[in-house]
Specification:
Length: 303
C-alpha cells in the first residue's frame, strides 16, 4: 500500500494527467436550435448499438433490416421507461420543496434510468419481435452487447453535464467539477476532485461487451443466456460504481435504491443464466418463428 502512495505522485508528475477536466460547454446552437451533448451521446449510443446488433443478428441467420423494425418499437419505449425510472428514483428535483414537476419531461437536461429503459424497452422489443415473427430470446441475445456499448457512449453525456460523479479523490484521474456550477456539491473546497464514475462505467461496459461477445462465440450460447449474462455483468459493475456516487438519490435501509436494484436484478440474472443453460445448453437453429405480420397479410388463403 505504501508503494502505491509513493507511485501516485510519479504518475501525476508526467506519466498520467493530474486531473480530468470537465467540458466547459454542453449545449451548442445551430441557429435557434440547441444541440445538447447529452442527447447527442444518447443518439450516438443508439446508432452504435444498432450497428453491432445488425451484425450479430446476421450471424444468427436473421435479416439485418429486422433489427431496425424492432428498434422502431424498442427505442421510444426505452427512453420513456428510462425517464420514468429516473424521476421515481430521484423525485426531489421534480416533486420536492424546490422541485419543478414540469422538468420531469425535460429529458434533454439529463436523467435516464437504465433499469426503466431496459424494462420498458424490452416491452417495445417484444412487440417488435412479435410483429416480425422472430424469437424474442434470440433478439435479446443479439442486442445484449450493443446495449453495453450504447450505455458506455451515453455516459459521455453525464461528463458534459458535470453530473453523477463520485466522492472526492486524490487519484491522478480525479474529475474537475466547476465550483461555480449547479452540480458542485455543498461542503467541499473548490479545488476538490471527484471520482469520474462516468469513466469507470464506460470502461466497465466496453470491457463487459467485449467479454460477452467472446464468450458467445466460444460457447455459442442462446435462448436468452447472452442477455442474462449482460444483465449480470452490468449489475456487478453498477453495484460498486453506484456506491461511489454522491448525487442525491432515494435511500432504502441505508443504501441507494440503485444499489439494491443492482443486487436483486443481478442475483435474478445469475439464477436465470444457470437455469436456462441447464434446459437449453445450445443455440437456436433459426431466429424466425414465422413470417413477419406484413408478409402474412400478402400470403393467399389456400382454401
Amino acid at each position: 500500500m505504501n508503494a502505491v502512495h509513493q507511485l501516485l505522485p510519479l504518475l501525476g508528475g508526467g506519466l498520467l494527467p493530474t486531473e480530468i477536466p470537465s467540458p466547459s460547454q454542453s449545449v451548442w446552437y445551430l441557429g435557434p436550435f440547441p444541440l445538447r451533448a447529452y442527447a447527442l451521446a444518447i443518439m450516438a449510443g443508439i446508432v452504435a448499438a444498432l450497428w453491432l446488433t445488425r451484425r450479430r443478428w446476421a450471424e444468427r441467420g436473421g435479416d439485418p433490416d429486422t433489427v431496425l423494425e424492432i428498434a422502431f418499437w424498442a427505442v421510444p419505449f426505452g427512453i420513456v421507461g428510462g425517464r420514468i425510472y429516473h424521476v421515481v428514483s430521484s423525485p426531489a428535483a421534480y416533486f420536492g420543496p424546490d422541485g419543478d414537476p414540469m422538468k420531469a419531461f425535460a429529458i434533454w437536461e439529463g436523467g435516464l434510468g437504465i433499469w426503466g429503459a431496459i424494462a420498458l424497452g424490452g416491452v417495445g422489443a417484444w412487440i417488435g419481435a412479435r410483429r416480425q415473427g422472430v424469437r424474442f430470446a434470440v433478439f435479446a441475445d443479439a442486442v445484449a452487447p450493443g446495449l453495453l456499448v450504447a450505455q458506455a457512449i451515453g455516459r459521455l453525456g453525464n461528463w458534459f453535464n458535470q453530473e453523477l460523479f463520485g466522492g472526492p479523490t486524490d487519484l491522478p484521474w480525479g474529475l474537475r467539477i466547476d465550483p461555480a456550477g449547479p452540480s458542485f456539491p455543498d461542503g467541499y473546497p473548490p479545488e476538490t476532485l471527484f471520482h469520474p464514475t462516468f469513466l469507470y462505467e464506460m470502461l466497465w461496459n466496453l470491457a463487459a461487451a467485449a467479454l460477452i461477445i467472446w464468450l458467445d462465440r466460444r460457447y455459442r450460447m442462446g435462448h436468452g443466456r447472452v442477455f442474462w449474462l449482460y444483465v449480470l455483468t452490468y449489475t456487478v459493475g453498477r453495484l460498486w460504481i453506484e456506491m461511489l456516487r454522491i448525487d442525491p438519490a432515494e435511500q432504502v435501509l441505508g443504501l441507494r435504491l440503485n444499489v439494491w436494484t443492482s443486487i436483486v436484478v443481478g442475483l435474478g440474472a445469475l439464477v436465470a443464466f444457470v437455469l436456462v443453460g441447464r434446459r437449453h445448453p445450445g443455440r437456436e437453429t433459426t431466429p424466425q418463428l414465422r413470417a413477419p405480420a406484413d408478409q402474412e397479410a400478402d400470403v393467399p388463403d389456400p382454401h
